Amino acid sequence: MKNRKPDLCWNAVNIGEDLQTLGLAGFEELKEYDDNIIQTASSASKDKILKKKKNKRRKKKKKPAEADESDSIIKTKKRKGRDTDPSELPSSKRIRNETICSDVDSSEVVTDGDTCQSVVEGMEAWHGLNVPTQIIQALSELKFTKPTTIQSMVVPPAILGKRDILGAAETGSGKTLAFGIPIISGILEQKGRCSEDQENNVDINKCETKSQEKSGGKLYALVLTPTRELAIQVRNHLVAVAKYTGIKISVVVGGLSAEKQERLLRKRPDIVVATPGRLWELIQEGNPHLSQVDDIRYLAIDETDRMLERGHYEELQKLLERINLDEGRKSSRQNFVFSATLTLVHEPPRHLKGRARKRLTPGQKLQGIISLLGITSPKVVDITQEKGTAGTLLESRICCTLEEKDEYLYYLLQRHPGRTLVFCNSISCVRRLTQLLQLLQCNPLPLHANMMQRQRLKNLDRFRSDSNSVLLATDVAARGLDIPGVEHVIHYQVPRTSESYIHRSGRTARLEKEGLTILLIDPTEVSYYTRLCRTLGRDKDLPLFPVDDSLIKGVKERVHLARELDKLELTCRRHHAKNNWFQKAIKDMDLVLDEKELPPGLSREAAVEVKRIASLKRKQLNALLSKPIFPRGFSGKYPTKTGQLQVPFVKAPVPEFAAIKVLQQMEKSKKHKTVRKPGAFVLLKKNKGRHYLKKKINN
Ligand SMILES: Nc1ncnc2c1ncn2[C@@H]1O[C@H](COP(=O)(O)OP(=O)(O)OP(=O)(O)O)[C@@H](O)[C@H]1O
């Protein structure tokens, strides 16, 4: 066979006499191969394509007729290659039609594996991975000129080898497309095969779903995610990549109108991206499109470790039981299991003794996941770093009392403006901080599970569109959300699990960009912090975030005033709510109420007084907020004529890059000099005294 990739492990498959009499030369099975070989093969084919391109241009000039001829050969030969029905084979076995492509003198054809592709300029890096041209075209529009590491390691075995994949890579490394591209490519292949079978009248009756596949009614793939926002994001991501494929993708999540979702499902999408709860609900209600769920060809579980935890696993388990019922269908399904923390293992609890205290190895953890999901012999691609977080993430901490947390948070938001995500451990904490930061005019955007879905999406959109916005969120925003340009992630409370820390922090420093994370630790949280360091194998403390103490005084004043005002307003709100409820109940019962019979709480006079004080405090706070908080050149020492401190030459506060601050601190402290690793940032001093962050490529 010509054009065969060097050293790939192809094994002949016995095809029997019947098929030989049909004129089939042979089948070969790709058993195992080395990704590097694929890369080499791809670059070899790249050179070849370039050479052939030149040749063709020359030929085109000289003999246009000849070129036309070769085009027609491509078409007929391609069809000839598909005359044999590969769907009759087990999923791991394929017919290689590269011989057919290889004979063709075509400059526009890549002969990698079993697809004939045209070259999209500037996208050569993708061609070696066997990605169909329609997808490459869309990737080119997205300016994704080359695959990320996880994509280049997952896409070939998934497309060529049809392998199940267990993928682990750092946050923001492009995992969505690592499973999205093979799924879209596989559906394209199946659809193409189906219509060609029909065209050629090949065994169309043998496969009961063929006509359905052709008419576009088949549900091919299911992608599961733990949160609604992530499902919507994944759907949009896949839609962008499937732009030229005609593949339809819909989302099924809770919180959106059931009617709308049913309407979407009536369009019979090829791929459904869903959260397990709503999906299971619709399956049980007997939605006709979702009734095909037992026969899906692709299943992707994003953030798998989260999906196997309480709260999601129950529905996932029911779904898996259903789709794994038929062994034949189960074995013809390709599974993708992904997460940044798939292989993260924990320290066993201290109270356990002896063998029970043995730490699970990543391999044992994976084995557990494999058997829970009922997958057999997947390819494991684990490229997570030892420290768990992204290589370009700068981590730091601030140790303070519980009381001071609000002050440091406000300080950070004022001193280091930029798109900032603040994580809290509870909804009540998000609510309290939202109130407080609203009073301090920081325009916070809350996001938690008790909000209306529409408001959740609206706040996310606002956060995306404003480069100086603050999102206050629970862990509902910790996983998967891809918001470009998040500069800082602040952990207002120490997350209770290392997974949570990794995923929260992973909202910044995505795709090799720099980002900063700051952990606020109060004395009651030290034990969580040390456990976090142990699990993530950190033998040193995270560096301290440098805070300018001289600026904290002004911060304290504002925050204290805002807190007082918040309490007063809360008292007023409660008083009104209680009274309104009582008055309404009395009115409904047609009773007349005496003043003394009002519910216990504030008297009318006290309520008026609270309101008066609140309005006074609000004025004071607004007056403070109207002045810049960090005046330049202000020493805080000089008295003025009026005896009050004034800031005569105040300019707008100079925003400081928080990441640079941390690096400066680390430079000073010899302790952290060893932190520098390949790929980490170094601080470069450039002309005019300005500092720049630069990624360190080599050691
Ligand atoms: N090949 C590529 N070239 C450039 N950008 C890419 C490429 N692939 C994906 N991206 C972009 O990288 C960003 C991160 O991708 P994605 O959300 O898939 O990461 P992830 O690994 O799933 O992150 P997380 O673990 O947080 O879920 C997205 O904005 C995506 O559009």
3D architecture notes:
With 699 residues, this protein is of the alpha/beta class. Among the domains are: 55 residues, no CATH class; 243 residues, P-loop containing nucleotide triphosphate hydrolases (Rossmann fold, 3-Layer(aba) Sandwich), CATH 3.40.50; 75 residues. The protein is 43% helix and 11% strand. It contains 24 helices and 17 strands. The strands form four sheets. A seven-stranded parallel beta sheet has the order 5-6-4-7-8-3-9. β5, α11 and β6 form a beta-alpha-beta unit. The protein starts with 9 loop residues before the first strand and ends with a strand. The N terminus and C terminus are likely disordered. The protein binds adenosine-5'-triphosphate (ATP). Adenosine-5'-triphosphate (ATP) binds next to α8. InterPro entries: DEAD/DEAH_box_helicase_dom, Helicase_ATP-bd, Helicase_C-like, P-loop_NTPase, RNA_helicase_DEAD_Q_motif. Its EC number is 3.6.4.13.
Question: What would the keywords be for this entry?
Answer:
699 residues; alpha/beta; Rossmann fold; six-stranded parallel β-sheet; 24 helices; 17 strands; 43% helix; globular; disordered N terminus; disordered C terminus; binds adenosine-5'-triphosphate
Heteromolecules bound:
adenosine-5'-triphosphate
Termini separation comes to: 45 Å
Query: Based on the structure, what is the oligomeric state of the protein chains?
Result: single chain
CATH class of the domain at 127-200 and 209-349 and 358-385: Alpha Beta
In percent, how much strand structure appears in the residues? 5-15%
Q: Give the number of DSSP strands.
A: 17
Uncertain runs: 1-9, 33-46, 59-116, 202-209, 634-653, 672-681, 684-692, 694-699
- Give the strand line-up of the largest sheet: 5-6-4-7-8-3-9
Proper CATH architecture of the domain at 127-200 and 209-349 and 358-385: 3-Layer(aba) Sandwich
**Which overall shape is indicated by the principal axes computed on the Cα atoms?**
globular
Helix count equals: 24
CATH topology of the domain at 127-200 and 209-349 and 358-385: Rossmann fold
Radius of gyration equals 31 Å
Based on secondary structure, the structural category is alpha/beta
For the record, what is the CATH homologous superfamily label of the domain at 127-200 and 209-349 and 358-385?
A: P-loop containing nucleotide triphosphate hydrolases
Mean pLDDT across the residues is 77
Report on the biggest sheet.
Answer: 7 strands, parallel
Helix percentage range:
40-55%
Pfam family, one: DEAD
Function: RNA helicase.
Enzyme class: hydrolase
EC number: 3.6.4.13
